[in-house]
Write a structure and sequence with these properties.
345 residues, mainly alpha, two-stranded antiparallel ribbon, globular
Length: 345
């Protein structure tokens, strides 16, 4: 099987702006499908162990994880709504029946402000880097997705990390933008500019290997399924299956890093929410603590819930993105053909 994808002809190319539109559409669709799963999960967690003031929990909209802080004195927050659920399905039914279907997307809009731009940057950078690397790597072009995926993830995570830190502070301390600016300036003066990227290490430790494996397996799987079906171009079904399988493989391999990253992220968020001095435990210390408390099996806790969330998110995102790119390629080709016919009647 030939895994080297030749550079597309000019009539078949799409612009970076069109790639951004395609990835933006995929990001929004993914969040609409996946967010209800996490909202129900959080409601079940809150029912079992009510969140006290200042407690942090992880909210995932299918695109990225966000730290949410339980607001002081806010008994009307969506995650504190009353309800007795016996199972996940029961929670879905009761939330829709008593609170309305819109409640399944509680807390989504504020997270999209960062998640959608981060996804757009990530996917657009990946495509641009991958195309450039394939030209330069020659016989090793099949490894281009691995390098491009890792590099694109480093770039998008680095850009978004300070914004996520600011969002957490705004939510937890209810500061005005002037107060927040002063708070950030004081932190930078005391701890340096790197303090704005606190918590980035564990994120990269999980997301960079995930992205490298995901894109490498996705491109290989997509080409293999395309050749198997004798299709000239990957279909929606092919991209959906390839995305789901490659996302599942990457999520299983990187699960220990996800467990550590989540634990450390929550710990750091609670320190910030309570405005307490001191640093969160290092990644290595958190890993050792998990192993000491729960054994090595503790590093693989939550495998099934993670697969249920990651597999459909990856499948929906990549299939929508590829569908959008195919749509723009067709439009560009038709536009160029129309202009050629006009100039050469």
């Amino acid at each position: 099987m030939n895994n080297q994808s030749p550079a597309p002809p000019a009539s078949d190319a799409i612009t970076p702006l069109q790639q951004m539109v395609a990835s933006c559409s995929g990001a929004i669709l993914t969040s609409l499908f996946v967010t209800p799963l996490d909202v129900v999960k959080i409601r079940l967690q809150a029912q079992k162990n009510p969140f006290p003031k200042g407690k942090c929990f992880v909210y995932c909209n299918g695109l990225m994880d966000h730290i949410c802080v339980c607001e002081n004195g806010n008994s009307k927050a969506w995650y504190k709504a009353p309800g007795h659920f016996s199972s996940t399905l029961d929670a879905f039914v009761k939330i829709v029946r008593h609170e309305g279907i819109r409640s399944l997307w509680s807390g989504l809009p504020p997270t999209l402000v960062m998640a959608v731009p981060a996804t757009v940057i990530y996917f657009t950078c990946y495509d641009q880097l991958c195309a450039a690397l394939r030209v330069r790597m020659g016989d090793h072009a099949q490894e281009a997705p691995l390098i491009a995926g890792a590099t694109a993830r480093v770039g998008s995570a680095t850009m978004i990390s300070p914004l996520e830190l600011i969002r957490t502070k705004l939510q937890s301390q209810k500061q005005s933008y002037r107060e927040l600016t002063q708070c950030i300036r004081s932190a930078v003066e005391a701890e340096g500019w790197l303090s704005l990227w606190r918590g980035l290490g564990p994120t990269l430790l999980r997301d960079v290997p995930f992205s490298a494996m995901y894109w490498y397996n996705y491109e290989r799987g997509k080409n293999w399924l395309r050749d198997l079906s004798t299709a000239t171009e990957p279909t929606l079904t092919i991209t959906f299956i390839s995305g789901a399988v490659s996302g599942s493989i990457a999520s299983i391999v990187t699960l220990p890093f996800d467990v550590v990253k989540t634990r450390r992220q929550v710990e750091l968020g609670e320190l910030q929410a309570k405005n307490l001095p001191g640093q969160a435990s290092s990644t290595f210390c958190v890993m050792c603590r998990i192993v000491a408390e729960d054994g090595f099996r503790g590093l693989f806790a939550g495998l099934l819930p993670r697969l249920i969330k990651v597999a459909p998110a990856c499948a929906i995102m990549i299939s929508t993105y590829e569908f959008g790119k195919a749509f723009f390629r067709k439009q560009n080709k038709e536009r160029i053909l129309a202009s050629l016919q006009t100039t050469n009647p």
